[in-house]
Design a protein that fits this description.
single chain, four-stranded mixed β-sheet, 13 helices, alpha+beta
Amino acid sequence: MMEGILMASPFGLFLYSFYDPFLAGMRKSILTAWVAAFFLPQSVYETSSPFIDFIRWYGQYLFYLGLLGFFVFAIQIYWAKLKRKGMVSSFVYSYIRHPQYLFFMLSGAGLLFMWPRMMMLVLFVIMGIVYFYLAKFEENKMLAQHPEYAEYMRNTAMFIPGNPGGRIYKVLLGWIPNQKLGQVISVALIVCLMFGGAIGLRNHSIASLSTAEIVDKNILTISIFPHNKKYMRDIVNKSIAHESIHKALAEQGNVSYTAHILPINYGMLGKFSEINAETREIIVESFHNRSSLRDWLWGTETDEVKIVFSKIDKPGKAFVPLNEILDIDMVQ
């Protein structure tokens, strides 16, 4: 029901008319394919890294916390306007000047953990830069309307209590006489830090996956639940021995594959393959038998599994070696 409402909304129009086609276009070039890549696992339930699993499952709560804080402080601002109380400097505003923007950025960070695609990181960084300069613009207006705002600015941090950002700026860039140039350099450093951190998270995520190479068949096996390499190789080789699967793979020629090992009751098969009527019935049945939404999405670990083979493509390459399958410009 909620999916139908969402897809009928302007967001659905944006998703299907621009976002999806845009990402598909980005995948066609080796220079831009990275935009569609993820920097945290999206098809794996559990990794060997407690840190990665923690930020994946709990980082999303920043989205709800951020929205709650944004609306709470919006009420404070608009109530003061309604009552004509003038400048607001009480409650959280006595510690930071822009709590609404801070919590909106926290909400954006939570959304980034929900859907950790590089494209989303680009949008998040742009949003952060825009809100910083919007805050500066608003402060100039406040100084013109309320001269006492200058004293408030001197005694109150911009976004974070204690103004750690300002202190770091003074240490690293305080020697630059032109403040605007210093701001540009600091923005560039933050952008580099953000994208460097995302690449680091991606590399750590890949190193934490349960994978096993089947070199003679050009297959990289990936299990969404942790398994040892022997089990993964054995179960994939057993499936390849089936005549219909062997024939289907052979028809593709000299290509590489990923083989995802999924629980038999895995719900989100649409991530990997087209869903026919028979498969949809299985998904609906598995949904009724799950105790939680997370169980429905990821299934529960069992001895019975599904194996989904995906042919791997890379812009400008007819054949993708096993050691390049998880590159940031890979297309599945």
